[in-house]
Amino acid sequence: MENGTMEDMDVLWEKVECKRYELCRNITPAKLTPYLRQCKVLDEQDEDEILNSLLLQAKANRTSRLLDILRTKGERGYVAFLESLEFYYPELYKSVTGKDPTRRFSTIVVEEGQEGLTQFLMNEVVKLQKNTKVKTLQNTELSRKTRTLEDEFKKLRLANQELQAFQQRYNKLREERNTYSDELLRVKDENYKLAMRYATLSEEKNMAVMRSRDLQLEIDQLKHKLNKVEEECKMERRQSLKLKNDIENRPKREQIFELERENEMLKIKLQELQSIIQ
Question: Which residues, by range, are in coiled-coil regions (predicted)?
Fold first, then answer.
């Protein structure tokens, strides 16, 4: 763009503002600041603020601050910014201006003379060399870290295999434990049933013992009664024999009738006693 344009700077910068989000998202400020300083639209303090300020942590915030500073520089800032886009970000240059980049050196740089242009190119070469050296160191460090990570990965893979083996062993032991737990519950249930059965049998046994004692007592009582009845029967027999002898010795009809009657009564009593014993 020529310096003698008749377009108002505010209008031109509004075109840039319309692309602010796209510019902030894609531009890396550190790539543009050396060129902008060479064009003297930024000074060392501006560059330090844009690249190193703690308030501008994100890349988009640094780019946004760069655009704000350039806008204060008027037409010179606008021209230098477009030329830096043309040199480093041709696609963004076309998005902002609608023109294809020509890759011409800045008229602002040319104004500084051949010496200034040479110094700018030397600074760019030194910057590229530094970046290359940094990249080489970074690649070396990354290679070292990669080897370290590979060794750690091998160790982790072996550890994972061991863990899988332990996991399989653990699962097997857990299955066995579950099996034994089920068996234990079954045995406990059987023991409980047996204990209940044993308690029932013990109670039945105690009741049987008590019943047996009662029956034994009744048997002893009946034996005692039986012995008593037998004694009575013996006495009655003796009396009967005596009466018989008396009858024989005293054969009177009245006495005989009396003795027979008594004998019949004794027989009846004897039958009653036998019934009781049975």
Answer: 139-276
Which amino acid type is present at position 168?
A: Q
Cβ atoms of 92 and 52 closer than 8 Å: no
CA gap 79, 75 in Å, rounded: 6
**What confidence tens digit (pLDDT) does each residue in 13-60 have?**
888 899 899 999 999 998 899 889 888 899 889 888 888 888 877 888
CA separation for the pair 87, 105 (Å, rounded)? 8
Treating both helix axes as pointing N-terminal to C-terminal, what angle do 253-277 and 113-249 enclose, rounded to 10 degrees?
Answer: 170
Q: What is the pTM of this model?
A: 0.40
CA–CA separation, 238 and 260 (whole Å): 15
Measured CA to CA, the distance from residue 262 to residue 240 in angstroms comes to 9
Strands (DSSP E) contained in the chain are none
Residue type at 258?
E
